[in-house]
């Protein structure tokens, strides 16, 4: 095999986006995936596309990503089934000042968002209870997409541009010489490389440990419950509920997906964890959902699953150059934000790899060194997953 300019490790949404952007720029790229595209946490993502963040850099990233999601077929190529249902982030009196401040910041960036009162929430979502809500952030153009279709679209387009996609190929170790990355060792053999980007989600730290580099990334188990909506409840927006600490997303087939927004760090082995949803979670989420959508008291459980977040101590990703070895890069630790940010992540990583570091670049916020420099990224909400 000839030596590619860059090897990307990981066939989730971020790895595929990075591979596409590098191939688009004319680099020779090989993407290595241990199973199939989107076989890990990406394929089990709720794939919500919303733009409400309290950090200005992340807000700019998600706005850029939304622009690409909205015009995906023109910018990348392929169908991602972006359903622009609208998005509401509802909050009680204790959080409403933060919501308003974040809306103001986002509007300056260009995000189409506005504050809505409880009465206006009811007008937008007639079947939703406004009990305990002091208002909400409303984004008419947000919604959700198909995570597997999106990842495959990025991968397919990268392949069209000359990238090699190696599936069912497990990355085992990194190799370096003279202070520079030289190869990726896989179960199919050694692959020489000019550079390596690790985008392997919760498996990322296992790979960096092979060169004695410890990354503060852990695998955290998170559950998604599925409920069948009653016949009188046809469709709804994506609703993030800071008060009840759940999100609710419509799904075809009269279904609703529900997940928690609490900061739960339930650390597990990414190769050996319970992938089934617990009954206690199904019952708990059902109670919370029924308080917000009383019509759902006539709904029914349709199962669910558990997947993984790759989380860091401040619930923000590690993106950029890794220290000590030239030509080694990382995008991991998305902490539940990875899908919606992926289009911007791909562009930012490609820019870094091709043009080198720049002192003013937004990507610097997410450097690995921030942990030793005690400059953790903070948001306005106590729930870090909200952003």
Question: Describe it for me?
Answer:
The protein has nine helices and 19 strands. It has 387 residues and is an alpha/beta fold. An eight-stranded mixed beta sheet has the order 5-6-4-14-15-16-13-17, sandwiched between helices. It has a six-stranded mixed beta sheet with strand order 8-2-1-12-19-18, with helices on one face. It has a three-stranded antiparallel beta sheet with strand order 9-10-11, with no helix packed on it. A hairpin with a 4-residue loop joins strand 14 and strand 15. Helix 1 (13-24) packs parallel to helix 6, helix 1 (13-24) runs parallel beside helix 9 and helix 2 packs across helix 9. It is globular and about 65 Å long. The protein starts with 5 loop residues before the first strand and ends in a 32-residue tail after the last helix. The model has no long low-confidence stretch (mean pLDDT 95).
Keywords:
387 residues; alpha/beta; eight-stranded mixed β-sheet; six-stranded mixed β-sheet; 9 helices; 25% strand
Strand content: 25-35%
Q: Record the strand order, biggest sheet.
A: 5-6-4-14-15-16-13-17
Question: Nearest-angstrom radius of gyration?
Answer: 21 Å
Shape: globular
Structural class: alpha/beta
Q: Averaged pLDDT, please?
A: 95
- Could you give the distance between the termini? 42 Å
Low-confidence stretches: none
User: What proportion of the residues is helical, as a percent range?
Assistant: 25-40%
**DSSP helix count?**
9
Q: Classify the oligomer.
A: single chain
N to C succession of SSEs:
EHEEHHEHEHEEHEEEEEHEEEEHEEEH
Q: Count all strands and give the number.
A: 19
